[in-house]
Amino acid sequence: MNHKWIGVVGWPLKHSLSKQYHEENIRKQGLGWEFRVLEWAPQNFERNILELKQDRTCIGFSVTMPFKEKIISYLDECEEFAQNVSSVNCVRNVGGKWHGTNTDAPGFLTHLNQWNPVPSKTVTIVVIGTGATGRCLSFALAQTGYQNFVLINRTFEKAQEWSEKLGCYFPDIGVEIGKWGDLSVSKEILRRGACPLRKQGASQDDIRMTNIFILNTTSLGMKGEELEWLDIAHLQNPVWLFDATYNPSETLLIRQCKSRCFYTMNGWPLFEAQARLAFKIWKS
Fold first, then answer.
1. CA 10 to CA 256: how far, in whole Å?
2. Are residues 180 and 118 part of one domain?
3. Is residue 233 classed exposed, middle or buried when 0-12, 13-18 and 19+ CB atoms within 10 A define those classes?
4. How far apart are CA 145 and CA 193, in angstroms?
5. DSSP code at position 223
6. Mean pLDDT of 181-200
7. What mean pLDDT, rounded, does the chain reach?
8. Domain boundary among 102, 121, 153
9. Number of C-alpha atoms within 13 angstroms, CB side, residue 127?
10. How far is CA 121 from CA 125, 144, 146, 212, in A?
C-alpha cells in the first residue's frame, strides 16, 4: 500500500528547511505521511509536474523558487490573491484536482503586525526584487493601506511590468521604479512618505532619509552573494529591513542594519508562518 505524502518542489533546495520542519509536524501529530524533497532542474519541470499530477497518493506540496508562477497553469483552481500576484506556494490535492493558494502573504502580515514598532502606513517601501515574493508582499502591503512604493529589479522591464499592474489594482498608491545598484529615492516619493533630513550646513547631496522600509526579496543572501551595492549610509532611523533569506539566519545586509540600530527581521518568521498555514491546508 502506498503511503500518503507531502513535499516541496523547487530548484535548488539545498538551503530549504521544509523537510525538517514538516517531518517534525508529521511526527508530533502522529500522521503516517512521508515528506519528499522534489528538487527539479527547470528544464525538467513540465515532464515532472505532469507525472506528479497522476499521483493520487500526494496530499499536497509547497512550491518555491523558481516555480511559484509556472505552477499556476497546471492547477485546476487558484485563489484570487495568488492569481493577482502570479504566485502560488501551496498546492492541495482534492480528489485528483489541484487547488493553489498563497500562504506567504498572511504569514508575512502576521509577523509584520507583531513587529515593535510596526512600520507606519507613511513609510516608503523599497522592494528589492519583483519576482514571486516581491510581488506577493508588495500587493499584500498595498491591500493593508501602505501607499508609497519603490520597485528595484535587476531586469528593469520586470519592475516596470509589476509597477503598472500594482498601479492598476491600487490607483491611489505611489509607485516608482528604482535602479538596480542605487537606493536613492525621488523627491516625489519623499514628499509622499519618507522624510528627507539634512544636517545643519550640509550640502544638497548630503541628505539623510528616514521612514524607509526595505524588503529584500531576492535570493542573493541565500546563495552566499550579497547586495553589496546597497548603501545604507544615508538612511537614518526609523528604518525597517525585512530580508526574505532565512538560511543563513543573518545576512551581511542584516548585520549592517543592526549595526545602525535599524529594525530588522530575517525570513524565518515568514517561512515558519507560511509552512504552518500550508500544513493546516493539507490536513483539512
1. 30
2. yes
3. exposed
4. 13
5. T
6. 54
7. 88
8. 102
9. 29
10. 10, 9, 5, 11
Whether 126 is covered by a domain: the verdict is: yes
Tens digit of pLDDT for each residue in 11-33? 999 888 999 999 999 999 999 99
| Residues 254 and 207 reside in one and the same domain | yes
- Would you state the cell numbers that stand for residue 133, as one nine-digit string? 515574493
As a whole number of angstroms, the distance between CA 119 and CA 126 comes to 13
Q: Would you say 3 and 32 are in contact if contact means Cβ atoms under 8 Å apart?
A: yes
Q: Is the same domain home to 134 and 265?
A: yes
Output the CA–CA distances (angstroms, integers) from residue 118 to 69, 109, 111, 194, 211, in the order listed.
30, 11, 10, 15, 12
Q: How far apart are CA 280 and CA 67, in angstroms?
A: 22
At residue 218, the 3 state secondary structure works out as: coil
Residue 17 within any structural domain of the chain: yes
Count of residues making up the chain: 284
